[in-house]
Design a protein that fits this description.
This protein has about 130 residues and is of the alpha+beta class. The chain is built from 1 helix and 8 strands, in the order αββββββββ.
């Protein structure tokens, strides 16, 4: 009987962890962080370019007369930007697809919109070789 109870508990834990993993993956796909993000209604305008996977990779932060490069990662709802000299943390909020909010540790809020990738013009027809 105790062995059966242990098997049931392990099975439930496995199912729970698997569901949590699928929910996180769905959330990451909805966020779709890799790409070019432009600050909305801020002066000077700055851009955040995230590359790599859904939850980590290299980044470039430009605008405002200064540019930085480093690595980013998503830890829970916290976006962490790490450079050689400093680590900056932002609380991440998803407003809608293609619009996120970042709140830094000082309480400054930034709304970012994802730039759409350049599209192929409608009048271009691919030729077969």
């Amino acid at each position: 009987m105790p062995l059966l109870l242990v098997i049931v508990v392990v099975g439930l834990i496995y199912i729970y962890l698997r569901l949590q993993r699928h929910a996180r993956l769905a959330w990451l796909q909805k966020l779709s962080l890799p790409g070019v993000w432009v600050a909305d209604a801020s002066s000077p305008v700055w851009t955040l370019t995230l590359q790599g996977g859904l939850d980590r990779g290299p980044f470039q932060l430009g605008g405002g007369g200064a540019g930085r490069e480093g690595h980013w990662r998503l830890h829970g709802h916290t976006l962490v930007l790490s450079t050689v000299t400093r680590v900056q943390r932002f609380d991440l909020r998803l407003f809608s697809t293609g619009t996120i909010g970042l709140i830094d540790t000082d309480g400054d809020r930034h709304v970012l919109r994802k730039q759409a990738p350049p599209e192929t013009p409608a009048n271009v027809v691919p030729l077969r070789r």
